[in-house]
Amino acid sequence: MNTVEILRALPETIRLRLAAASHGSAHLAGTGMRCVQLAATEPDSRDLLDLGLDMVMAAFEADPLERRTLDFLAATQARYPFLDPTRHALVNMLRAPGCNGPLARAVSGLARARRYEEAFDAVELQASAAFDDPFLSGALVRLARRSGQWERGRALLEKQGGDEIGVRTLMLADCRFQAGDPQAALRAYEAVGWNGSTHLLGRRAACLARLGRKAEAVALHREALALRPWLTTNLLLAHDLASGWADERRPIPGRTLLLCYTWNKAELLHATLETLAPELSRDMRLFVLDNGSTDQTPDVIAAFAERLGENMAGHIRLPVNIGAPAARNWLLSLPELAGYDFVAFIDDDALPPTGFAEYFGAAVARYPEAGAYGCKIVDVQRPERVQHADIQLVPPGRSPAAFDLPEGFATMRLLEPGRNEMDFGQYDYLRPAASVTGCFHLFRTETAVSGPGFGLRFSPSQLDDLDHDLELLENGKTAVFQGHLAVNHVRSTGLSGDAQGRLAGNAHKLYRKWTRERAQKVKRLAGQALLEDLTVRERELRDA
């Protein structure tokens, strides 16, 4: 069976999750375990059981130190022997009492407490024998991830000796990749020695893609698909590399007005406008709304208005902060929009790269009827960390505890594996999505102006962009994610206590508005768009 045939044969809850992504150890393990649970209640469900076990095995390959996955594999192996001798021995070795010793646990605890220097010092003072514990290698990678000190983590891992089971080498490869050395990472991934690991094939393909060896990267993705045809992410990545979509740049087909609203972030706004200035022209101009700022924001806007001349289509200062949804609606009511084919909202702390418009132009060319076009958002201080990628819909599970929602209250669930993930190229694709992040997104002017508007119930901010995308989706206009465009974002994704409270409140409002009937409709439409898109991708990749 090919990828789409496998998906169509699955129960909806599994099909939607797998169509959305086939990467991320937590996502794979959770989806695989659901398959196994469903198989226990379904007649003639051996295929579903096999798929679930294979997905959990893939999760293990991606993160061999995750205790929940290890315990599940060991327990399931006792009932349904499915592990080959090598992997069975590896699972048992990693569950042995000597693993995850005191030093590994101490380093992990210090990293969680953000005591990074103490954690590194604790490792540097140890003899090399301490690295016989593979969990220490994992703790070092997590420490490098949290601190951003990938070179230091790599140096410590490289000081160590042999690696009988391959875990330290895998961790070293990840450090080398994130330290910006794909060639060295490639050598390490090749040395891990886990035959048949699709995770390693994908990581090697990512290295080759970064090195410009795209045909070789496609070949490795094809090899992974031959082993596990359900790997939807590999299908997307292989398609975009083989078809040229990954390199496609086109002008936006019409004039574009960039819309920026801001409040009390003069320094950040200055950086954003400085980044945008070289990109502006007759075909792309800027309008800024000052949402009642009390800092130096008016001075920043005035200076850029003088500097940019006619490329600053206009600016306005409101007497009070009316919140994000109302600011967006105000901007969409401007008479100046009449002369523009497209509008794009950009945050006052977003820093897009040179030539960003041509990435959006490529997305418009491939998906001309989309409701919105978004991009991959990364942390400006840690660009290897993805803040937002594509957002997909799956059936609701348990209500998120952080939202303090009663059981069964949620009517849908957002699946966004990319949130705060390390970037290994797993989102370097162009595809439909249920929603895209509002940090920087593009609309056809007609769609934006005649559309539903941004819900004032979500003031002052949070979830209004998601709600807007769902409104468009309900009316047949799917969002599109342009993962080949990475935009730096200054503000972190962490939320203060007040912001968490607003998010919880807005989640209540979102679920009240999107009843189960409406949520089921948009979930079905989003899932249908994913399947149709994967069908075309699979055919084009086969014929390439």
TrEMBL record:
<dbReference type="InterPro" id="IPR011990">
    <property type="entry name" value="TPR-like_helical_dom_sf"/>
</dbReference>
<feature type="domain" description="Glycosyltransferase 2-like">
    <location>
        <begin position="262"/>
        <end position="378"/>
    </location>
</feature>
<keyword id="KW-0808">Transferase</keyword>
<dbReference type="InterPro" id="IPR029044">
    <property type="entry name" value="Nucleotide-diphossugar_trans"/>
</dbReference>
<dbReference type="Pfam" id="PF00535">
    <property type="entry name" value="Glycos_transf_2"/>
</dbReference>
<dbReference type="GO" id="GO:0016757">
    <property type="term" value="F:glycosyltransferase activity"/>
</dbReference>
<dbReference type="InterPro" id="IPR001173">
    <property type="entry name" value="Glyco_trans_2-like"/>
</dbReference>
<comment type="similarity">
    <text>Belongs to the glycosyltransferase 2 family.</text>
</comment>
<keyword id="KW-0328">Glycosyltransferase</keyword>
<protein>
    <submittedName>
        <fullName>Glycosyl transferase family 2</fullName>
    </submittedName>
</protein>
